[in-house]
Design goal:
Elements: H1 2-15, H2 22-36, E1 43-45, H3 46-57, H4 88-99, H5 114-129, H6 131-134, E2 137-138, E3 141-142, E4 147-148, H7 157-164, E5 174-177, H8 181-187, H9 189-208, H10 215-220, H11 224-227, H12 231-237, E6 253-257, E7 272-276, H13 277-283, H14 290-302, H15 304-314, H16 320-332, E8 339-341, E9 347-349, H17 355-369
Antiparallel strand pairs: 1-5, 2-3, 4-5, 6-7, 8-9
Length: 382
């Protein structure tokens, strides 16, 4: 199914008539939720998509300081995400961020922050009302090749508000994947994600009249300045040693994404380790060998309490279920010929006889997900 699916998706991107960036955000959210599940899901909920969309827009809703007229790191403007306006979703997130200036990343899944629950609900309604019913349209028609939903763009706000107040029968929030679609999103994630990001970048550039330089890093790159806030707590967690080589952390060090950012943009605390700058540079965008993987998994499980403390003190997102899901998908789908990073020994090219061990580790991660259940966001309806 993957090639026909990709052809249809390319048609949506080329001819979908996008006037805002919402549809790009929904596509990336669906990809991420399928990857994070550890195995292709049959459905996701509108509340899950809303949470992921907020996370995608979160780093973009801050002053862009590379405008030609910008004079300092604080001198800049918000990038418009809609033709002629900031865009409703971006405006909602900006308002929340203004009221919580010390919140460096979106609150945790189990947050009791009522304002954040309200933000998620308003974003969810916006997605229900607009991009979700329209995403699969090309030309004048529609082909539901990704998902089926139980409403159209004429859905009434009163139905949704009843659902938001806890009446699960008022509105069916399921997004049901068409047979094979979730698997195709996972299999093609490495191809689709950069295509969608590039289209998003082109639209933002056109709407705001910007040159391309540094815009992509601003919209979709890891925020290295923000990650720096975790240097001290991660150093204490790792007893002052590099996660990879185990020697003392002297000199330059970097917060590294264990599952590379290029594979899935997961800034969750479980995915972050502190490493020597040289180890980080050598690892680059490669998956680490399973020996590192098992050590990383054990850290998340055995030091879970300390990671919770760091997340609370740093106001940093932590969702082990999501992070393990991303890693499980990555390791379970490693094909013959891929190179894993072995640390000082360099890269190991996998042969057919190596794959069972790597895939087994992916299954171990998936099994770990079925441990303590993920708690729903505060205020989520059934």
């Amino acid at each position: 199914m993957t090639l026909p699916f990709l052809e249809k998706l390319l048609q949506v991107l080329a001819q979908g008539g996008f006037s805002a960036t919402y549809k790009y955000a929904v596509l990336l959210a669906l990809i991420d939720l399928c990857v994070e599940a550890g195995h292709p899901p049959t459905s996701v909920s509108t509340s899950q998509v809303a949470r992921r969309v907020v996370e995608l827009y979160w780093p973009q809703v801050r002053p862009f300081t590379d405008w030609p007229a910008a004079r300092s790191q604080t001198d800049g403007e918000l990038l418009r995400q809609n033709r002629g306006s900031l865009g409703k979703i971006a405006a909602l997130i900006w308002e929340y961020r203004q009221n919580h200036p010390d919140q460096f990343s979106p609150p945790r899944v189990d947050s009791s922050d009522g304002e954040y629950a309200d933000l998620l609900r308003e974003v969810e309604w916006k997605l229900v009302e607009m991009p979700l019913p329209r995403l699969q349209r090309v030309g004048g028609g529609e082909e539901r090749f990704i998902y089926e939903i139980g409403w159209d763009e004429g859905v009434s706000s009163s139905r949704f508000r009843k659902y938001a107040r806890g009446d699960g029968a008022a509105f069916d929030n399921r997004i049901l994947f068409v047979d094979g679609a979730a698997d195709a999103l996972v299999a093609l994630a490495a191809v689709i994600r950069p295509l969608v990001q590039q289209q998003w970048l082109v639209m933002v550039r056109a709407i705001n009249g910007l040159p391309e330089a540094r815009l992509e890093a601003f919209l979709f790159g890891a925020d290295r300045v923000r990650l720096g806030a975790l240097h001290k707590p991660l150093r204490l967690l790792q007893s002052g040693t590099c996660f990879y080589c185990g020697s003392a952390l002297g000199g330059a060090s970097e917060v590294d994404h264990f599952v590379p950012w290029a594979r899935s943009p997961d800034d969750g605390l479980d995915n972050l380790v502190l490493a020597h700058d040289r180890c980080n540079r050598h690892k680059l965008h490669h998956l680490a060998d399973v020996n590192f993987g098992r050590r990383w998994r054990d850290r998340s499980l055995e030091l879970s309490g300390r990671l919770d403390e760091i997340a609370a003190e740093s106001k940093w997102s932590r969702d082990r279920v999501r992070t393990f899901g991303v890693a499980a998908t990555a390791y379970r789908r490693v094909p013959d010929g891929v190179r894993l990073w072995m640390g000082e020994r360099g890269l190991r090219r996998l042969g057919l006889t190596d794959l069972p061990e790597v895939h087994r580790f992916g299954r171990e991660l998936a099994d770990a997900i079925s441990g303590p259940p993920r708690r729903a966001p505060h205020g989520s309806p059934p």
